[in-house]
Design a protein that fits this description.
Layout (H helix, E strand, L loop, with lengths): L8 E5 L4 H11 L6 E6 L2 H11 L5 E5 L6 H14 L5 E4 L17 H29 L5 E6 L12 H20 L5 E7 L6 H6 L5 H5 L6 H14 L3 E3 L2 H9 L3 H18 L1
Parallel strand pairs: 1-2, 1-4, 2-3, 4-5, 5-6, 6-7
Helix pairs in contact: 1-8, 3-4, 4-5, 5-10
């Protein structure tokens, strides 16, 4: 099974902080020595990353705001592909989270709902669509990869962040379907499913509920999460539930991917019969 060790050049969207940053640096340290492109909207953080860890020239940086209009996003993706023709893997780690309570509908900020949906799902679907012709072309001669980062909340939601959970459920479903659709193109879709992980996401969006202090006793330390995830990435796992997410995955999701593969075979057989 192809693994991240087979990647020569990986772009990590949303890698200026948290899970994306930590995975980017761990991938950079792989013995296979891939080129790693950190990508995000905060240029100062990208510059800091390259200055601190780019000594051998394999760490590159690209500034990108995933909320820009579709035409501009497509142009940005085309520029990335032109600049890095060896690109064979893309990881999507950007995400935002808002707390909302629909029992008090007057408090719902629909701009927050839309931005959450855009960053966590629509922008990722758009970028996958824009990257796929290149990744399929790469797949003609060697493996290429799409890495999505969903959440255990996409499997079993919590009531405090209903829209966030819905966006992650959508990304989880998409990942399963694309895994099956793209297999014959040698494009390998890998879904990372984190539990609650130490992250700025919770500090920024839950400040009114105690921020980091409220979660520090229950979240998985970022370093521990990264080490566990890297083991699975190097092994070539196609779904990577980590920590508490592994228990939810085993309870609710075990065998689902195989079921989708069987459904695809059934649909093809039915189509041939017509």
């Amino acid at each position: 099974m192809p693994s991240i060790n087979d990647s020569k050049c990986i772009l990590i969207v949303g890698s200026t902080a948290g899970i994306g940053r930590s995975l980017a640096l761990s991938i950079l340290a792989l013995p296979s020595k891939p080129t790693v492109i950190v990508c995000g909207r905060r240029k100062e953080r990208l510059d800091e990353l390259v200055a601190a860890h780019g000594g051998d020239g394999r760490l590159k940086a690209v500034q990108l705001d995933v909320t820009i209009d579709r035409t501009s996003l497509k142009a940005s993706i085309d520029d990335i592909i032109e600049q890095f023709p060896e690109l064979d893997a893309v990881m999507f780690s950007s995400g935002i989270q808002h707390i909302s309570d629909f029992s008090e509908p007057e408090t719902i900020n629909l701009d927050d709902v839309i931005s959450e949906l855009t960053v966590n799902y629509i922008s990722i679907v758009s970028m996958i669509t824009f990257f796929l012709p290149h990744l399929i072309k790469i797949g003609e001669t060697r493996p290429s990869f799409i890495y999505t980062i969903s959440s255990n909340l996409g499997i079993a939601p919590v009531p405090g962040a209903p829209n966030y959970c819905a966006t992650k459920a959508a990304l989880h479903s998409l990942s399963l379907s694309l895994n099956v659709q793209l297999k014959n193109q040698n494009v390998h879709v890998v879904e990372i499913i984190p539990p609650l992980v130490e992250s700025e996401l919770h500090e920024l969006h839950h400040a009114g509920q105690g921020g980091a202090e409220a979660y520090s006793g229950i979240w998985m330390p970022l370093e521990q999460f990264t080490k566990a995830t890297m083991v699975c990435l190097e092994r070539g796992d196609v779904q990577i539930p980590v920590g508490r997410a592994a228990r939810r995955y085993a309870k609710y999701e075990s065998g689902k991917l195989e079921g989708i593969l069987r459904m695809q075979a059934f649909q093809r057989k039915a189509a041939e019969g017509n």
